[in-house]
Design brief:
Elements lengths: L4 H10 L6 E2 L11 E3 L4 E4 L3 E4 L4 E5 L8 H13 L6 E5 L21 H28 L7 E3 L2 E3 L6 E3 H8 L28 H6 L14 E6 L7 E5 L1 H5 L4 E7 L2 E6 L2 H9 L3 E4 L8 H14 L3 E6 L2 H7 L2 E9 L11 E7 L2 E6 L4 H10 L8 E5 L13 H13 L3 E4 L2 H7 L6 E10 L2 E11 L3 H12 L8 H10 L24 E8 L12 H21 L3 H6 L6 H13 L10 E10 L2 E12 L2 E12 L6 H20 L5 E2 L2 E2 L17 E6 L14 H16 L11
Parallel strand pairs: 1-3, 5-6, 10-20, 18-19, 22-23, 26-29
Antiparallel strand pairs: 2-3, 3-4, 4-5, 7-8, 8-9, 10-13, 11-14, 12-13, 15-23, 16-21, 17-18, 17-20, 21-22, 24-25, 25-26, 27-28
Helix pairs in contact: 2-3, 3-4, 10-11, 10-13, 13-14, 15-19, 18-19
């Protein structure tokens, strides 16, 4: 195609509407790409749209829950397109196979994988779109495309003076064909990657224009609340409908699979009616346990079953027989709630043979399955509109709240917003599992010769596969959903990925020890569980790094030096540990009344070492300072890394100091922030985040700040008091 500038201007001004560029990616057949004359838009790929009006629209396949994907992933595209990130408009992806997380085969955001899995694909998408625009401009000017450059959304002529806006080129760019790989920008030319900048969604959140699930408003919308069984598994058999149906604003009340739904014109009207509700419950299949019984069951299972071998090197039994000293310890961690600031909620509307669901969900394709379960609709008839999330921490990977909203909307056939109260969020949510760890270490003249770690507890996938398996096969009929889940569990580690939620962080034990054994004794007391920020790393981090400190003490060696001498084969572990110790003045005495503890842990591909300085004031633990060194590969936005690591540290400290969900006869004792405490502003320590400069591919930062801070605090308290704590939460 050869065109002079006059012809080009005729084409571009003659087109109606905007123009969109879309790069075609193999295997993306279900998402239409290319130039669309009827709308004047160009979609070069499944992520990008460029319009004649110079709009650049990026489809974000990972949800934004405060962790910075909105900014970080947009920055990758902006870098290769050579535009300021703030000029790109972001929209959340619909449910489509092309937007699945490649590590999980599901369209979910979790595991601190958003940046790691998007690092190359999004840069390639931006680079291809940019190259097609350059090629189009070069044809207009009849020059070599390699001589053209780009700057701030324009293609610049080799003379350095003339330029064309991207919007002027989108229709022509759609006709270009790229052969071979498009080179990505070298690191030396980056303008935005690696630059400390603010979050692109900050203004929308500060001004209230960002739409969270709680903000969704629809015409003629009603509000629903759900009264659930006080014990997991209980079913409502009857209730005093006549007493509540006549209350102000109440429009309906009925029994569902999840409990009793109350519907009213206003949210508070539904809550007031709920206070008058009296429900008869069938507890024949309900959970009937307490916290003490859970751990008694764990100990019994551990003694009767040594568990599945997950890692084995050398012979730990022989090492123990030959050791001059054998150290044993047992660690307990309780159930934990997620306590997201935005409680669970969803809005659903059944109409015209389909359903729309607006929800703050970490897994929109699982949300679609959840809604399909409670309607007569196939997943293809259900549209999930993902909103901003007011915190996730893994809780919003489980879709029970969408199931509830869909069930109510299906019965009413009007828009329904269902909201959980804070008390309901605490008492009826899915939890981080309680876990038990049995450790044995063999010492010879201060040398660690044997390491044995037995992990006792459930696996998250047992509870998660219910909707996850059908989401991978949305074409399957609904009567097969539960079968797919059972098959997925049976094929775990063969046809489906192995569930490592109980053992992650333990099997990657980094220290050079000749004899290592890690085993998992699977036992499940029936308490519903789900992913929790840093998942298995959270409890294994506490066990591994506390026991390492115990072994150092028993050997009479400094905890830092004890670890360092076993890390010669792990340079990245060693570097963050040395950096954190140096920044914390590890070799110098702590201020009077304080002590320091350290911990080292790798999770989600990120290496983190932390030193905690703590003391006891007025009978309470006080954390004064946390020094953290982190190696997360190439950093896209240092400010987001700092924010996420600091957030993870405070999240972990909250769990270490206060986190505990307890059961009495199957009912949760805690109900709100007065008895499920969070760390408050005046209690937060000084946090220093030191980032290692690295050219390795980026890894996750949303969760790795959590695991090491818990044992580091416990180790500091031991250094202060001489008393070792092996159960969480820690006490003064």
């Amino acid at each position: 195609m050869t065109m002079n500038r006059r012809d080009f201007l005729k084409v571009s001004t003659g087109a109606s509407g905007s123009l969109i560029l879309a790069v075609s990616i193999p295997g993306c057949a279900s998402v239409q790409t290319g130039y669309q004359p009827e709308t004047g838009e160009w979609k070069p790929d499944i992520w990008l749209e460029l319009t004649r009006d110079d709009e650049i629209i990026f489809t974000l396949a990972r949800v934004e829950m405060g962790q910075g994907t909105y900014t970080g992933l947009t920055t990758l595209v902006a870098e290769e397109l050579d535009v300021e990130p703030s000029t790109i408009k972001v929209r959340f992806a619909p449910v489509a196979p092309e937007y699945r997380n490649p590590l999980f085969g599901l369209q979910l955001t979790g595991g601190s994988t958003s940046l790691a899995t998007s690092w190359e694909p999004l840069r390639v998408a931006g680079a291809q779109a940019r190259q097609m625009l350059v090629m189009a401009a070069a044809r207009v000017w009849e020059v070599d495309a390699d001589q053209c450059t780009t700057r701030d959304g324009r293609v610049v002529h080799p003379n350095g003076l003339d330029s064309l806006r991207y919007g002027q080129l989108v229709e022509l760019a759609d006709r270009e064909v790229i052969r071979g790989k498009v080179p990505l920008k070298p690191r030396a030319e980056w303008k935005y990657i690696g630059r400390k900048g603010g979050k692109l969604d900050a203004r929308a959140k500060a001004t209230g224009t960002a739409v969270y699930g709680m903000d969704v408003e629809l015409p003629a919308m009603v509000y629903a609340v759900m009264t659930r069984s006080p014990r997991y598994g209980g079913k409502a058999s009857s209730f005093n409908r006549d007493d509540v149906i006549g209350m102000p604003g109440v429009t309906d009340a009925f029994i569902t699979e999840r409990g009793v739904a109350l519907v009213a014109q206003r949210y508070w009207q539904a809550r007031k009616a709920q206070q008058k509700l009296q429900v008869e419950w069938d507890f024949s299949e309900a959970l009937d346990t307490d916290t003490e019984a859970v751990f008694e069951g764990y100990r019994k299972a551990a003694s009767e079953n040594s568990g599945v071998k997950e890692r084995s090197e050398g012979n730990v039994d022989k090492a123990a027989d030959r050791a001059k000293q054998v150290v044993e310890a047992e660690y307990e961690q309780p159930y934990l709630a997620h306590a997201t600031m935005e409680p669970m909620n969803a809005t659903a509307w059944y109409r015209d043979g389909g359903m729309d669901v607006w929800a703050p969900t970490q897994a929109p394709d699982l949300g679609r399955i959840a809604a399909a379960r409670h309607t007569d609709l196939s997943p293809g008839k259900i549209t999930i509109h993902t909103t901003f999330l007011g915190g996730g921490f893994g809780r919003r990977l489980t879709q029970d709240y969408i199931e509830e909203a869909a069930a109510v909307a299906y019965q009413l056939k009007v828009p329904v917003k269902l909201i959980w109260s804070r008390e309901e969020d605490t008492r009826h949510g899915f939890l981080r599992p309680a876990m038990l760890h049995r450790m044995k270490g063999s010492l010879n003249d201060g040398e660690l010769t044997g390491w044995h770690h037995q992990i006792v507890g459930p696996q998250v996938l047992d509870w998660y596969v219910r909707n996850a398996a059908p989401a991978q096969y949305p074409w399957a009929p609904k009567f097969l959903y539960d079968t797919l889940g059972r098959v997925g569990l049976m094929a775990e580690g063969i046809a489906t990925p192995k569930d490592i939620s109980a053992i992650e962080g333990a099997i990657e034990y980094p220290y050079q020890v000749p004899n290592v054994s890690v085993r998992h004794t699977h036992t499940d007391p029936g308490v519903p569980i789900t992913w929790w920020r840093s998942v298995g790393y959270s409890h294994n981090g506490f066990a591994v790094e506390t026991f390492m400190d115990e072994l150092a003490h028993e050997s009479g060696e400094d905890p830092l030096q004890f670890r360092l001498k076993m890390l010669d084969a792990e340079p990245r572990h060693r570097e963050v540990l040395e950096r954190a110790a140096r920044l914390a003045d590890w070799g110098q005495p702590a201020p009077e009344g304080r002590a320091r503890g350290l911990a080292l842990f790798k999770s989600f591909g990120t290496y983190v070492a932390q030193v905690v300085e703590a003391g006891i004031e007025n009978g309470e633990i006080r954390v004064y300072k946390v020094i953290c060194s982190v190696d997360c590969g190439q950093v896209v936005n240092p400010r987001i890394v700092e924010d996420q690591i600091e957030g993870g540290i405070l999240f972990g400290l909250t769990a270490a100091l206060y986190g505990e969900i307890n059961f009495d006869n199957g009912e949760i004792r805690q109900s709100n922030f007065h008895d499920y405490r969070l760390m408050q502003m005046h209690q937060t320590p000084e946090v220093v985040v030191d980032i290692v400069d690295s050219e390795a591919d980026p890894t996750g930062v949303g969760e790795p700040g959590v695991p090491p801070v818990i044992p580091a605090l416990g180790n500091a308290l031991f250094a202060l008091t001489g008393k070792r704590q092996r159960r969480l939460p820690l006490t003064a």
